[in-house]
Amino acid sequence: MYFLPYILVFFFLVFIVLFAPITVKDKSIHTNINKDLIVLQFLLLFFLWIYFVCFREYVYIDWVSYKRLFDSVRPFSEIEGYWKVNTNQWERGYYVFCCLVKQFTDNYLVFQVINGLIDAFCIFLLFKQYYSNRYFCLAVCFFYIFNGLPIEFNLLRNSKAIFIFLFSLKYLGEKKYLKYLLLNIAATQLHNSAIIYIFITPFLLFNWTTKRVILFLFVVGNFLYLLQIDLFTIVVQCIQGFLPSSLQSVVPLFFRYKNDAAYGLKIGYIERLFTFFIIYKYKPNILRLKNGRILLNSYYIYYFNYLFFAPLVTICERIGVLFSFSYWILYPYIYSQLKSKDKKYLFWGIFIIYGALKLYVANNSETFQYRNILTL
């Protein structure tokens, strides 16, 4: 029953979303009532976040490494300087962040609370850029289901880098490329994987996701996936002999975590296939959304990553986490475009069933046992 706390939180999140007022009436009495309900909704969401995320104990796996680092760092006032400090192979920005928090507390659990509050503030600012109160909590629901848990519990460095990238999209959309670049260089100081955001910038901006290109990649990708043809391995093996000796020694590292069991008609494949058709159908609507082109291209990077790199589990999952934000933003917007009540009922039915099943599969082992410092 290790999965139970995660599913209960999901159901409570759904309750908070459905509790939201559908419209704000023109009459003042109804407006006041709805404003009170909106405030109550945000308070419920905030206290749920504080309890479940901030006041968790030692949950998931990576806390071991993060706690060891936090216990070993010195307070900020004792370090020589940002560029002089010995980070022991940790990203410099995250290391100094730990030193800064260490200035005020030696307790790792307090560090987790501070970290959770910072992430909550970032999520609030991010989703408020795209949604009114009506769909804000729905976006949090999708964050929770699509990699929100590992991002908050396991990927303390990645989370900050991802949020910085998402804030930088404002400048990318405004063609202020220098500010976008500087923010993402700063993000690499928190986690090295943020360098990917810089390299894929052309794929975010340009209109490469035309109907013909997308359908071609969709057919080829699913063909390779369903027939379990590892195109990446084939290409690497063909060119390996032409690579410099320094690169040839790196090639085996790509295949260390290769897992052909990633193929198959699993629930993840079915969900991604379903989402592809939904996104494809609502593409014209999505392009009207703020940064719609960038978000749409981000989703396609996310989707085709799983088709073409499926057996390279580590690479596939890491890239997937970096671009899962497309779910958080696009799905609430698609829901806002549904006019029929029947479609909305179907949406909620599928989402609740899939969300509960996904949480059950992902958290049903002792490794993911949830503990909370308030209930010890």
Structure description:
Helix 6 packs antiparallel against helix 19 (325-336) and helix 7 (156-173) runs antiparallel to helix 8. The protein has helices spanning 4-19, 28-54, 63-72, 92-102, 108-130, 133-153, 156-173, 177-188, 195-199, 201-205, 211-226, 231-239, 245-248, 251-254, 267-281, 283-286, 292-308, 313-323, 325-336, 341-363. The chain contains 20 helices and no strands. The protein has 376 residues and is mainly α.
Layout of strands and helices, then pairs:
Blueprint: H1 4-19, H2 28-54, H3 63-72, H4 92-102, H5 108-130, H6 133-153, H7 156-173, H8 177-188, H9 195-199, H10 201-205, H11 211-226, H12 231-239, H13 245-248, H14 251-254, H15 267-281, H16 283-286, H17 292-308, H18 313-323, H19 325-336, H20 341-363
Helix pairs in contact: 1-2, 1-6, 1-20, 2-5, 2-6, 5-6, 5-7, 6-19, 7-8, 11-17, 17-18, 17-19
Briefly, what is this?
The chain has helices at 4-19, 28-54, 63-72, 92-102, 108-130, 133-153, 156-173, 177-188, 195-199, 201-205, 211-226, 231-239, 245-248, 251-254, 267-281, 283-286, 292-308, 313-323, 325-336, 341-363. With 376 residues, it is an all-alpha fold.
